[in-house]
Amino acid sequence: MSDQGQMFIARFNAGDEQAFREVFARYYKPLCGYIYDIIRDSEAADDVVQDIFMALWNRHTDFNAIEKISSFLFVSARHAALNILNHEAVKQQHLNEYTAETATDDMEETLLIAEFDAKLRHWLDALPAECRKIIDLALDGKKNAEIAEALSLSVQTVKNQKVKGLKLLRELYRRDYALLLLFIRLFMERI
């Protein structure tokens, strides 16, 4: 190594900020380009290079030649870039697993709701016509007075028919009670 190279390393090992700035100026852009070629993210590349230079500053006494500094910088850059790629791959894998799991859960829930809707429609179809109309309107969120007005009935008739309809529905769904409980549990989880 030349005398000039030895003097530079001595300054660098002593923690001379100007020597560090010279290394920074010489290697910053090449390191950013090197990392960008691997990860294709300029912001992340810049962050990685800054971290590498912090590590270099913390280890400034460990180098006995400029070539050792250069090797440290590029080896560190490669490791950091590969770690980012691995981390991104793991994140993508978790995202894919979550998406597949969510899609399966959503499909199961959709099928369960469709099955329950079919059962409910079957139960409602088994009700007497007047009673079914009232229960349908009630399930649509209508209040007793609104149902009475829509069907030209008294409010008391609506109440009586709702009680009758709910009793009949209760009898009809006893066979399918477990399905109903599962639907209610899923519905309550969404609230």
Walk me through the structure.
It is a single chain. α2 (17-39) packs antiparallel against α3, α3 crosses α4 and α5 (129-139) crosses α7 (155-173). The protein has 191 residues and is mainly α. The protein has two domains: 3-91, Rna Polymerase Sigma Factor, Chain: A (Orthogonal Bundle); 126-190, Arc Repressor Mutant, subunit A (Orthogonal Bundle), CATH 1.10.10. The longest helix is centred in the middle third of the chain and has 60 residues, at 66-125. It has helices at residues 3-13, 17-39, 42-58, 66-125, 129-139, 144-151, 155-173, 177-190. Helix content is 85%, strand content 0%. The relative contact order is 0.06.
Produce the secondary structure layout.
Elements: H1 3-13, H2 17-39, H3 42-58, H4 66-125, H5 129-139, H6 144-151, H7 155-173, H8 177-190
Helix pairs in contact: 1-2, 2-3, 2-4, 3-4, 4-8, 5-7, 6-7
